[in-house]
Amino acid sequence: MIQSQVFYKAIIQGRLEFGTEKSYQKIVALYTQRMETLYKRDIIFKTPETIFIEAEKALVIERFIGNSSEKQWKNTVTILEYCAQFAFSGTINAWLADSGKLLGYQMIEPLGEKSMVMLYHEGKKLSTQKGSEKEAYDLLTEAIEKHERHSEAYEKRGYINYSLKNYADAIYDFKKSVHFDYMNASSHYGLARAYMITKEYKLAISSLEETTKHSIALQPIYWAARRVKAECHLALKEYDKSAFEYKLFTARNFTLEDPNFKHQIKSWYNYGKVLFALGQIDAALECFDKSLNMASDHQDSHNAEFFMDRAMARKAAGKSDYILDLRKASELGLETATKLLTEKP
Known about the structure:
Layout (H helix, E strand, L loop, with lengths): L7 E10 L3 H17 L14 E2 L4 E11 L1 H15 L4 E10 L2 E8 L6 H13 L5 H14 L4 H13 L3 H14 L4 H13 L3 H13 L6 H16 L3 H12 L13 H14 L3 H14 L9 H13 L5 H10 L3 H8 L3
Antiparallel strand pairs: 1-3, 1-4, 2-3, 4-5
Helix pairs in contact: 3-4, 3-5, 4-5, 5-6, 5-7, 6-7, 7-8, 7-9, 8-9, 9-10, 10-11, 11-12, 12-13, 13-14, 14-15
């Protein structure tokens, strides 16, 4: 009895740049040859002209979402990794999922002895090491000088500038990065964070929308963008839009390893502030309580403003115990709370 082939959901997105006409033509020929002889066309992208863009000398996969067997997905990842050996720059992300469960993931980047590739990887490595920012910056700058369209080098240099509080330079780098690769979600996110520092919230929101557009819900950056977008709307007092984003973020269960995990306490608090501003008092109190309960092991995580906000919500709900939160806010040094406590009823 012949068993039917099992198919899963494959998602692939990204680009590889080959720099010169010679390199580009070589990889197109090699891709076609390997597809026909080595993989017997048992890959996802069977028509090279749909992914190779001659005008850009690049392999470009805007966003593929479709059914694939595990073998097809693995073959596709392997042939794309082969192509990456000839690339000057770029990144491709490939996921295989089944009913929302991640079965496989691979990030594909150029590797090899090309100078811009080696400079980028060394700069990338040093960019994560505290105290090595200057050396990392210089290496990434040299990689850009070797290959001006190096989106990822601009991205990493942008985050170095951001960490050094060189926000204007960070904005320049992130803009350059997305100019050369508009699918670079990390650069869109970095640009948004830089705009937030300069309080250009509408520009930040626009960049965060690009972040979610070019990432997927299986990636932490997708949810980070939703959370930060909620913060921007809150800063602009666009409470309904902020509530929409916080509702999505707080409904998500994050693992301890997910970088969004540590932001849940603050997000539930902010969600409470938003709902209180919208007049949804009971729901706001639920959010405040959820935030405090999640922080039971971190007693210092809630400041005076939190207890002041919950006191006002409790008072609006007609709860006499609001005075306890007001006292707590006063004890933590909030003068407004102290003044309210001393006023006559």
